[in-house]
Structure formats: structure tokens, C-alpha cells
Amino acid sequence: MENQINNIERGVFDDLKELERLRLNRNRLTQLPELLFQKNEALARLDLSENGIQAIPRRAFRGATDIRNLQLDKNHITCIEEGAFRALRALEVLTLNNNNISSIPVSSFNHMPKLRTFRLHSNSLRCDCHLAWMSPWLRQRPTLGLYTQCSSPPTLRGLNLAEMQKNEFTCSGHSDSAFVQPCSLASGSCPPMCSCSNNIVDCRGKGLTAIPAHLPEAMTEIRLEQNGIKSVPPGAFTSYKKLRRIDLSNNQISELAQDAFQGLKALNSRVLYGNKIKDLPVG
């Protein structure tokens, strides 16, 4: 904990077969490698809170089937892959509050018969037809997920999911909105709260508090202005080699990692006004 760790490679814990508790909270982790804990069958408590983790891969906890307490709160999570928690049947405590989660795959929490503490408040939940399953799930478990509220659409903002009816969760429009694929980390995809066309990712004014993870690799422009983003973590954009323009204006950014834009040779425009940035990275 509090060691400024920003990267952990798969295999680093493989020899710790008797490990029962692991605290990695308050570091600078942005990614969670798959199969990181595959040899840690005795692991019972895992604290990953207060990092910059952006996504939970499908096989993140594969092998660590005895985890009872899993803390993922206060990260930048936008994507939970389908089946990410499926192996965690012994789980008693799961905290996902204070992230940037907008949607969750159906039945993500159905394999946790011992769950007694569950927190999902303070996220960016989009209450459309894809999240309708969660309302009855919460009602059947009245002590779990207290204060879980909608963030969008505006007409439902602030409403408690457990108190909503199925017909309130709607998908509108003539696009493929009724058939949105769950977020996948195999290849970048358009964030569900944004619009994407002509290699431009438009996330303007969507109430984001963190930069979405696993964006389309071919994008040439990303518009993130007029949100509530507070920091730009290390390597936030470095994998998007075709980026020419990044607009982060009118956010609440006070921390900008030195390597946030590293390796972006095509980048010719960074728009950063309207923030609280004191030091700009070189390059």
C-alpha cells in the first residue's frame, strides 16, 4: 500500500501460494492483468482500492476462488467484462463505489450466495434497457447496494435503482442501442456513453470523472471536454498511436502524468484550458 506502484506483471505473485491477504491500495495501478492471482488459491482478502484501475478483465481473478473480501472502490473503472466475478463464489464483501461504471453485464453478481456487503454508489450508471436487470436484483437483496443511483439519462438522474420499475429502463433511437455489446478488452470499442464516427470519439459533457478505458485504437480525435475528469494517469493515451487531437478542456484536471501523451507522434493538438493544471509534461 502507498508504494507508488504503477505496474504489476503477471506471475509476480505465483510463488506466494500461501498468501492470504494482499493490500495494493493507494498506488498508481491503471491496469489489472489477467490471471494475476491464478496461483493464489489461499488469497482471502484483496484490497485494490484508491488506484487508477480502468477495467476488470474477464480472467482477472481466475484461480483465486477463495477471495472473500474484494475492494475495488475509488478507482477509474469504466469497464467490467462479462464473467469477471464468476469464479468468486466465496465472496462476502465487494466494493465498487466511487468509480466511473456506466453499465454492468447481466448476472454479474448472481454467483455470490454469501455476499453481505456490496457497494456500487457514486458511479456513472446509465439506466437504460441494459441495466434493467439490476433493479429486481437489488430489491431481492435490500441490505446490499444502498444508494445505488442513476447518473443518466437526465430524467432519471438521482433515482434509486431498487425503487424503479422495469418499464423505466428504456433504450431509444433507431441505432443498435438495443443490441449494445458489453465492453470487451480484446479490442477497443466505443464507450457506451459516447458517440463514435469517422474515427472521432465524442464524450463531451457526459459527466465523466475519469478517462474511459480501452477506446478504439484507430481513433484520430477524442473529445472529453465539459466533464468532471480530475486527473490524466500515466500512459492514458500512449496506446492510441493515430491520435491527432485531444480535447480535455473545461474539466477539473489538477494532475497530469508526465508520460500521458508519450509516443503520440501524430498528435498536433492538445486542448487543456479550463482546468487546474500547474505543470505541463514535456513533449
TrEMBL record:
<dbReference type="GO" id="GO:0007399">
    <property type="term" value="P:nervous system development"/>
</dbReference>
<keyword id="KW-0677">Repeat</keyword>
<dbReference type="InterPro" id="IPR003591">
    <property type="entry name" value="Leu-rich_rpt_typical-subtyp"/>
</dbReference>
<keyword id="KW-1015">Disulfide bond</keyword>
<keyword id="KW-0217">Developmental protein</keyword>
<protein>
    <submittedName>
        <fullName>Uncharacterized protein</fullName>
    </submittedName>
</protein>
<dbReference type="Pfam" id="PF01462">
    <property type="entry name" value="LRRNT"/>
</dbReference>
<dbReference type="GO" id="GO:0005576">
    <property type="term" value="C:extracellular region"/>
</dbReference>
<keyword id="KW-0964">Secreted</keyword>
<keyword id="KW-0433">Leucine-rich repeat</keyword>
<dbReference type="InterPro" id="IPR050541">
    <property type="entry name" value="LRR_TM_domain-containing"/>
</dbReference>
<dbReference type="InterPro" id="IPR000372">
    <property type="entry name" value="LRRNT"/>
</dbReference>
<feature type="domain" description="LRRCT">
    <location>
        <begin position="123"/>
        <end position="172"/>
    </location>
</feature>
<keyword id="KW-0732">Signal</keyword>
<dbReference type="InterPro" id="IPR000483">
    <property type="entry name" value="Cys-rich_flank_reg_C"/>
</dbReference>
<feature type="domain" description="LRRNT">
    <location>
        <begin position="189"/>
        <end position="221"/>
    </location>
</feature>
<dbReference type="InterPro" id="IPR032675">
    <property type="entry name" value="LRR_dom_sf"/>
</dbReference>
<dbReference type="InterPro" id="IPR001611">
    <property type="entry name" value="Leu-rich_rpt"/>
</dbReference>
<dbReference type="Pfam" id="PF13855">
    <property type="entry name" value="LRR_8"/>
</dbReference>
